Amino acid sequence: MAKPIQKNCTHLTASHLIKEVTDCLVDIPDHRPNHCKNGIPFGNFAKSAFAMMQMKMPSMLRFDSQREDPVQAHNLETLFDVVNGRVPSDTRMREVLDQLSPHWFQKPYKKIFSRFQRSGHLQKFEFHIGHLKNHYLLAIDGTQTFFSGKLHCDDCCVKNQGKANEAYYHQLMGGCIVHPDQKVVIPLAPEAIVRQDGCTKNDCEKSALKRFLANVKKDHPYLKLIIVLDGLYADGPTIRLIKSYGWHYIIIAKDGNHGSLIEAVDELDKQGKVARCLKTDPVTGIKYWYRFTNDVPLNKSNPVEHVNVLDFVETDKKGDRHTWSWITDIPLTEKTIEALMKGGRCRWHIENQTFNTLKKQDYHLEHNYGHGEQHLATNLAYLTVLAFLVDQLQQLGSPEFQKALKERTRGVRIHLWELMKGYFQTWLIKTWEGLFDAIISRTVAGIVPYDSS
Ligand SMILES: [Zn+2]
């Protein structure tokens, strides 16, 4: 049996975090006729699917092939609270999960975030700029998770509708709490971009963003946020929506989309109303050039909406120039521009540390575990990001996870997943602490008996 959970523990360990998840998943109401009284407990469906993601199983079939294996059954019960280790077949698991509303798989995110707040580790993400203290950067973007010319479901977005080359795809709107000095990111509950969201890719992403932001406000009403977005969202309606929630924003501005804004800045520049600043890093010699001004009309069609504009050029040691522009409602002064630039560049954390990791570091976000007809693909994607959240928090605040990562795999997470999977499939494990102890102390299995006959 697992060790009793310490209520006020400040550590973000696997045993605590996974218990938060499984406690949520067991609340999903059983929709089966007569609740299949003698069948597999209903909670086992979602908990088994989550275990598959947490253990980085490459396919549902691979997971299913070990369904009768007593070692896996034992470990699913002790580590993931799968009652009696009874796992449904891959076909039955797909059928049941397909019918469940995705909101059940968003719920654990809020519970885990509450533990994260109580742990005190959220303070590491505090971002201070000018008069704004104790704010948090929330970087948001959409990413594609599935594409097919054949398979589709009720949630699928459609490309080339009605044409011979009609195709289907899924996208996810993801958002993470990020910080310039933190490698770890903290994903909030993602939001699927679905067919009903609009006709164009733009419409779809913006509709999903509205739902995403509404859910963030509902789940975290007191969190003081600065929303960090790509240039696609640099428009009046998105800015007004963000401000209606009492938040601030830093959004990329691009030449192609914001010609009149750039013209307005150039005009102010001629009038001597634009400030400039050049800084050189005394250690690296890298040069940073800033140009900034406040209170500029966002565009000609929307002269009411005024924004502050920061242009930034970095010249690296090779002499190559890298240019960025952002719009923001945060007042720009010589004291705030550096923090603003660092906050704006955190947008890459959603691309690099989040989506790339989810697609290339054994989380298999783009892998088709099964598509279903209603919500299966969406539900499995939410569970995949949930496993990523659990791992990110362990990396931030679990001493045993940190030690295993450092001492056994030199910080390479994908190698740690392989070690964990190996133990999970071959050893009877009673607790998460025991699993990490075995990994850290390099416990090895006995010698395989050799029979020459
Ligand atoms: Zn679909």
What keywords describe this structure?
453 residues; alpha+beta; 12-stranded mixed β-sheet; 15 helices; disordered N terminus
Tally of separate helices:
15
Total beta strands: 12
Which small-molecule species are bound to the chains here?
Answer: zinc ion
User: Low-confidence parts, pLDDT < 50 over ≥5 residues?
Assistant: 1-8
H/E order of the elements?
A: HHHHHHEEEEEEHEHEHEEEEHHHHHH
* Average pLDDT metric: 90
Helix coverage percent of residues?
A: 40-55%
CA-based gyration radius:
24 Å
Please tell me what the overall shape is.
globular
- What share of the residues does DSSP label as strand, in percent? 15-25%
Q: Find the structural class using helix and strand composition.
A: alpha+beta
Give the termini distance in whole angstroms.
41 Å
Biggest sheet descriptor: 12 strands, mixed
Protein name: Transposase IS4-like domain-containing protein
Organism: Endozoicomonas montiporae
GO molecular function: DNA binding; transposase activity
Domain Transposase IS4-like: 177-385
Can you walk through the features of this model?
The chain is an alpha+beta fold and about 450 residues long. Among the domains are: about 15-100 and about 370-440, no CATH class; about 230-345, no CATH class. It has 15 helices and 12 strands. It has helices at about 15-25, 45-55, 60-65, 70-80, 90-100, 105-120, 200-220, 235-245, 260-270, 335-345, 350-360, 375-395, 400-410, 415-425, 430-440, and strands at about 125-130, 130-150, 155-160, 165-180, 185, 190-195, 225-230, 250, 275-280, 285-300, 300-315, 320-330. Strands 1, 2, 3, 4, 5, 6, 7, 8, 9, 10, 11 and 12 form a 12-stranded mixed beta sheet that branches. β7, α8 and β8 form a beta-alpha-beta unit. α2 (about 45-55) packs across α12, α5 (about 90-100) packs across α12 (about 375-395) and α13 runs parallel beside α15. The longest helix is centred in the last third of the chain and has 22 residues, at about 375-395. It is globular, with a radius of gyration of 24 Å. The structure holds zinc ion. The site of zinc ion has 8 residues, from β4. This is Transposase IS4-like domain-containing protein. GO terms for molecular function: DNA binding; transposase activity. Pfam families: DDE_Tnp_1.
